[in-house]
Amino acid sequence: MRVLILGGDGYLGWPTAMRFSGGGHEVGVVDNFARRRWVEEAGAHSLTPIATLDERIDAWREVAGREIVPYVGDISEGTFVAEVVREFEPDAIVHYGEQPSAPWSMKSVDHAVTTQANNVIGSLKLLWAIREHAPDAHLVKLGTMGEYGTPNIDIEEGFIEIEHNGRRDTLPFPKLPGSLYHLSKVHDSNNIHFACRVWGLRATDLNQGVVYGIETPETRLDERLATRFDYDELFGTALNRFAVQAVIGYPLTVYGKGGQTRGFLNILDTLQCVELTAANPPAAGEYRVFNQFTEVFNVGDLAEKVRHAAGEHGMDVQVDHVTNPRLELEEHYYNPTHTKLLSLGLRPTLLSETLIESMLDVIQRHRDRISEDVIAPVTQWRPEPLGQTLT
Amino acid sequence: MRVLILGGDGYLGWPTAMRFSGGGHEVGVVDNFARRRWVEEAGAHSLTPIATLDERIDAWREVAGREIVPYVGDISEGTFVAEVVREFEPDAIVHYGEQPSAPWSMKSVDHAVTTQANNVIGSLKLLWAIREHAPDAHLVKLGTMGEYGTPNIDIEEGFIEIEHNGRRDTLPFPKLPGSLYHLSKVHDSNNIHFACRVWGLRATDLNQGVVYGIETPETRLDERLATRFDYDELFGTALNRFAVQAVIGYPLTVYGKGGQTRGFLNILDTLQCVELTAANPPAAGEYRVFNQFTEVFNVGDLAEKVRHAAGEHGMDVQVDHVTNPRLELEEHYYNPTHTKLLSLGLRPTLLSETLIESMLDVIQRHRDRISEDVIAPVTQWRPEPLGQTLT
User: Fold this and answer.
1) Does the pLDDT of residue A22 top 90, yes or no?
2) Which end of chain B is more exposed for a tag (fewer CB within 10 A), N or C?
């Protein structure tokens, strides 16, 4: 299979590229290094030292004897993505090529516009490129569970049957996204669904939970193959951030009450899910949505797990309930379905104390690279500092 | 009230500007003349001769003794819209400033990208400008009934109560938009809803049906006050197009079976609805959706009405079922609610034979300006010419 990975230089994109390449597939990687730039502009950096894309590709050739083809450019600009799709002739396109941070999207009008323009226009150009040059290719799009928000009903996988005034229809599941970034993913989902309905494209939207983890079997092969690992307020996510905070003795930053409940998964399961999805493409014209996570935790419980594992590791860690910079429900119903990937064969890597401890070990090795300055949340969802929260 | 009209040089924007100005409000008009340019680039033109914005404003000052303030620029570019909002200090912002054609959005990747970038990024910059400079202003946003598509259940006004697995929530009504233009309006709606939820802005989304009509009391005051009237395949809409076709003896272009059912309203009622909405603003943080139309017709019946009225007028008109360039259901359930504007006091101007005949009279006066070349539908929803339709 010929697999094109958009955002293939990123946290998930690079390990995905190696996984497909190692599995015997022909892999192309598209990136404009925006993530490296955005993190750097925010004064932050990856915990793990990361090689350039060229160095990574060279190292992978040495270690695995396999070639990965790089395409450097911006999918939202000009005809770049159309040219790449035409030249590479992909069977599957795994699309991570988006601005992925909710707080980054809320920092200013320029951040908001860059997020929606990059994500929505980039994906729209991609859809048109597929229509023109690879209409049979399978688009595997990374969405987010955050598209749904926290409704007071069970969350289904993309669609819901609604009975209303004595009639029935199965319709897109209503969305209540919690940031301008999450909105960009909702816009994408709507555009992709349309491209399947009207142009007959085939796509799977992977509404992913919060990913944690640092290493995959491939990143461990050579230090030049390490993937990035962010722990700052903008690009770091809950468990990854807590583990870093634990290592430096920074009180774990639980936002507000900590009852915010989300789906989580190990980076190893991201790879499994994307592989399973690519191996089982939908029919032409079909738009599928898979909810991609393995476990549900609330943020307070997650902090407690890290605190406990760190304690076993000899670290004395505090949990701090900081003022929530976001506007979100801090206590709510949450029961999302996630059976489709399981029925394709996903075998979950559940969160264990051992796993947290192994993360702590890796972080400990890079401890001197941790900058305490970028940890505290400063980006507010509302113009003025919040006292209020939704209840 | 200080009312800022975005897209105030357009078909609906210009009559709306005069209506508010005539009603004693302070009116500012924002436009970049994109609509004039897009129509011209398509080789088409307004049936009615239209003055420039400056000429219109001069004529309005002469006729009505009132000042309308022009702001010329693109709301999706730079900081223009923020500067206008800061300077004008609006109480209400009526937002027509979007690329409004479904087929135009489907012509090419560039048309698709321009549509979504102009509409979504323009509206996003507007939301941020309101947040920064006029947080109490009421955004009156023109949406479209086409956001909903044609689900097999009754369409509610923006939100629906869903019972699912024994729990209930009231959530955004699921959308199935039928073009990349309609998608841009769905994206807007989602962004605006978020801005109300999270930033506490106040907005009303007017999901408007298909507008017909040429004149309003204000446009009749002076020929320099005429509004544009498009009849080409891209910017013309069903009834307006049929009336022009009838006048030149062109068989009425019903797409496919003609069972496509839509909400319609007279341009006079657009003005009424926008006035009523502005006069009754929502609370801070409230996002309302009004379905803005007065009657439901299917396209075949509408053609039949025009054929009959034209017959009474001594014209012998044929109806032609042309191959549908769009991908849409040609026979479907359609029962959208539209009570909110009625309960604010809307008194519908229903479609009568007399009204069609008066449209035919006005069109007859401009008959020598009609170009037959721009009438036939050429823009296809799918890459290849269609044989297929959804059933």
Assistant:
1) yes
2) C
Residue at B50: amino acid letter: I
Contact A160, B163 (CB under 8 A): no
Candidate list B48, B115, B144, B204, residue with the active-site label: B144
- For residue B351, the SS3 value is coil
Of B160, B200, B327, Cβ closest to residue A164: B160
What's the CA gap between A112 and A121, in Å, rounded? 13
Taking only the tens place, the pLDDT of each residue in A335-373 is 999 999 999 999 999 999 999 999 999 999 999 999 999
Residue A96 has, within 13 A of its CA and on its CB side, a CA count of 25
B144 is annotated as an active-site residue = yes
For chain A, which residues make up each domain, given as ranges? 2-374
Q: Which of A323, A317, A329, A330 is nearest to A377 (CA)?
A: A323
How many CA atoms does the CB half-sphere of A110 hold within 13 Å?
A: 3
CB contact under 8 A, A125 and B132: no
Domain A2-374 has CATH 3.40.50.1100: no
CB contact under 8 A, B124 and A116: yes
Name the residue of chain A whose CA is nearest to B164's CA: A153
What average pLDDT does the segment B120-142 reach? 98
pTM beyond 0.90: yes
Active site residue A170: no
As beta bridge partners, residue B206 has: B142, B290
Per-residue pLDDT at B80: 98
Chain A residues in contact with B122 by the CB 8 A cut-off are: none
pLDDT of residue B388: 46
Q: Which residues of A touch B381 (CB under 8 A)?
A: 198
Going by C-alpha positions, the residue among B288, B232, B241 that lies closest to residue B264 is: B241
Closest by alpha carbon to B336, among B149, B154, B93, B87? Answer: B154
**φ and ψ of B206, to 5 deg:** -95, 100
A contact residues 256-285, partner B, Cβ 8 Å cutoff? none
Task: Give tens-digit pLDDT for A269-327.
Answer: 999 999 999 999 999 999 999 999 999 999 999 999 999 999 998 999 999 999 999 99
- Nearest-Cα distance to chain A for B33, in Å, is 23
User: pLDDT tens digit string along A377-388?
Assistant: 999 999 874 444
CA atoms within 13 A on the CB side of B36: 16
A159-189 residue pLDDT tens: 999 999 999 999 999 999 999 999 999 999 9
What's the pLDDT band for B383 if we cut at 50, 70, 90?
confident
Q: Using alpha carbons, select from B144, B140, B206, B141 the residue that is nearest to residue B175.
A: B144
| Amino acid identity at A138 | H
Contact A152 B167 (CB under 8 A): yes
Report the residue from B113, B120, B197 with minimal CB separation from A116: B120
Catalytic site includes residue A237: no
Q: How many CB atoms lie within 10 A of CB A312?
A: 12
| Amino acid identity for residue A346 in this structure | L
Cβ B293 vs Cβ B145: under 8 Å: yes
Q: What is the DSSP letter of A161?
A: E
Closest by Cα among B53, B57, B18, B47 to B33: B53
pLDDT for the residue A383: 87
Q: Is the pLDDT of residue A37 over 60?
A: yes
Number of other CB atoms surrounding residue A52 within 10 Å: 12
SS3 content of chain B, % helix, strand, coil (to 5): 40, 20, 40
Burial code (b: 16+ CB inside 10 Å, e: under 16) for A372-389 equals: eebbebebbbeeeeeeeb
